[in-house]
Amino acid sequence: MSYEIELYQIRERKIIDDFIESLSEKTISKIFWMFDLLERYGPEIGMPYVKRISRELFELRIRKQESVRFLFTVKNKTIWIIHGFKKKRMKIQNKEIKIALNRLTLI
């Protein structure tokens, strides 16, 4: 079962691409490796890589030099990466989830 990954953007601004480009090369390499797994298996990868946050929202967890998180949703075999951020605390901050939920309504 394969999926297609789409990166969220606002108009012409590629928010997720810009975030990824701000990271170290090793972290970027791990991100693309994880995106490849996500395309092949979807959210069924499970822990420790994918965690369900709500009915429609999932967290992709990437640990390398930096601890990075992507929040995504799945619609019709398309995985929409809608928010990315560096994780600084044990628990995801509510503001990060609110950003993702707001973007979720726009796709």
From TrEMBL:
Name of the featured protein: Addiction module toxin RelE
Alphabetized InterPro entries for the sequence: HigB-like (IPR009241)
Pfam family, one: Gp49
